[in-house]
Design brief:
- It is elongated and about 80 Å long.
- Helix 1 packs across helix 11, helix 2 crosses helix 11 and helix 9 crosses helix 11.
- Strand 18 and strand 19 form a beta hairpin.
- The strands form six sheets. Strands 9, 10, 11, 12, 13, 14, 16 and 20 form an eight-stranded mixed beta sheet that branches. Strands 1-2-6-3-7-17 form a six-stranded mixed beta sheet, with helices on both faces.
- The protein folds into two domains: 296 residues, Aminopeptidase (3-Layer(aba) Sandwich); 136 residues, Alpha-Beta Plaits (2-Layer Sandwich).
- The chain has 13 helices and 22 strands.
């Protein structure tokens, strides 16, 4: 425990930097692929600590490597840059509605704390290998239309930040990855561990009608809004067919519903995900829901454009890394500080994509109040939210890379990622990409539904 106490003291020396970073990032929330101010703040902080950065350039984010000077595994520690958009949150940006209602500002503070601690005397004593610190954009899968435009422009290839970082090679050479997400827990609790969470496919659905005077000649139009309403009702009728163990979620929003009240809506846009516990279930239920969309559009006489994009693969936390996180946090905060559960989370994260190619751990921390993604989310205990998790990741890195990286080597030997390489993973996720005119009206009066790849 002498080494643990030494490392805890090192992080305590960085406490002011950690807490200032949390407040600074909270004050400038930016949604995915727009985190330019946040990235600039974090870049300045890292450069002042003496790090040389590899910057993403045309998108926000960066990474940096710290080499121990001895050969060994490479461990990545991650923090996410982006915010949500919750218009009713009291701290939401009045123009953009952005706010860190999922606590990624906490992750930036944790990452800053680990970066500062690693530069302190004695931090790397006895370690081998290297540590990659990564500030990653665009974890929240929101504003899909904006991201689709970036994709069409060639700026990005994938909607999620970590998926894009994998594609760009920023995870090349990394053997395992870890991070701690902000969370809401009872007093005295510091860390919650579970097996993993859902993956998703991201959907943009455009219903195409014909405009006409809504009062004078509605019979001359095709109401795209009615087509969308019918489609969403059909999707709801399918919910009882969702198998419980697959944890399927479908939660659409209408982002465009018509332009003026006295014209039949000629175009209606819907965004949604199809979430599931396995990639196979996501594919299966996505086809079923696409069929409902297409059949409903055909029933009204409307056209339908389906744009399915790779979202996130399900997250599967590595058992050895889960055990290590629990052990370390108990050493920091006491035997009752960790909650271990077999609950499968039905949210999603692009850390799941990283888990497809290497062992990862993505637990939830404490120190916040309210509801994640809600109007009342706040960081109320920054010691539990930021300082303790920074200690946890810092000490985990030490234990993984000490003793000739014996523990890291055990993790790697026993890990079984879904894919053997980045290339195999990217080939699989690309199978989720589809653009289809899903309703075809033939000259002979027949209608063809073409809703799957």
């Amino acid at each position: 425990m002498e080494r643990t106490e030494q490392l805890k003291a090192i992080v305590d020396e960085c406490r002011d930097l950690i807490l200032k970073t949390e407040r600074a990032v909270w004050a400038c929330p930016e949604t995915g692929y727009k985190e330019w101010k946040t990235t600039a703040h974090m870049e300045k902080l890292f450069e002042e600590l003496g790090y040389s950065l590899v910057k993403a350039g045309d998108i926000p984010g960066f990474y940096t490597d710290l080499d121990t000077g001895k050969p060994g595994p490479r461990l990545a520690i991650l923090g996410e840059l982006d915010s949500l958009a919750v218009a009713s949150h009291p701290d939401a940006d009045p123009k953009t509605k952005a706010v860190h209602a999922c606590g990624h500002n906490v992750q930036c503070a944790i990452l800053a704390g680990v970066a500062a601690a690693l530069k302190k005397p004695g931090a790397l004593d006895g370690l081998c290998g290297s540590i990659r610190l990564m500030a990653v954009p665009a974890e929240e899968m929101i504003q899909i239309g904006f991201r689709e435009e970036l994709r069409k422009q060639g700026t990005i290839h994938y909607l999620g930040g970590k998926v894009e970082f994998i594609y760009r090679g920023y995870f090349d050479g990394v053997d395992m990855s870890m991070m701690i997400h902000a969370g809401v827990m009872d007093e005295g609790q510091y860390l919650k561990l579970n097996p993993g969470c859902n993956g998703l496919v991201a959907k943009s659905i455009t219903f195409k009608g014909v405009s006409a005077h809504a009062g004078g000649s509605p019979e001359k139009g095709v109401n795209a809004l009615y087509a969308a309403n019918t489609a969403l009702s059909a999707a709801n009728a399918l919910r009882e067919t969702f198998v419980d163990e697959e944890h399927i979620r479908f939660h659409p929003i209408i982002t465009e519903g018509g332009t003026v009240v006295n014209a039949i809506p000629e175009q209606v846009k819907v965004e949604s995900y199809v979430r599931g516990a396995t990639s196979e279930s996501i594919v299966e239920y996505n086809k079923k829901l696409n069929r409902a969309m297409a059949a409903s559009a055909a029933a009204i006489g409307a056209g339908l454009l389906i744009e399915d994009r790779p979202g996130y693969f399900p997250l599967n936390n590595d058992k050895n890394l889960l055990d290590l996180a629990a052990e370390v946090m108990r050493d920091i905060a006491g035997p009752d500080s960790v909650v271990v559960t077999d609950h499968w989370d039905t949210g999603s994260t692009d850390m799941g994509d990283v888990s497809c190619i290497m062992p990862v751990v993505h637990p939830y921390g404490a120190g916040a109040s309210g509801i994640l993604h809600g109007t009342d989310f706040q960081v109320t205990d920054p010691e539990r939210a930021c300082v303790a998790p920074a200690k946890c990741l810092f000490i985990m890195a030490d234990r993984l890379l000490s003793d000739d990286a014996a523990l890291a080597k055990k993790v790697l030997a026993e890990s079984k990622p879904l894919f053997s390489s980045k290339e195999e993973y990217l080939k699989a996720i690309d199978q989720l990409d589809m653009t289809k005119e899903a309703v075809v009206y033939n000259e002979d009066g027949t209608v063809l539904l073409d809703y799957q790849k």
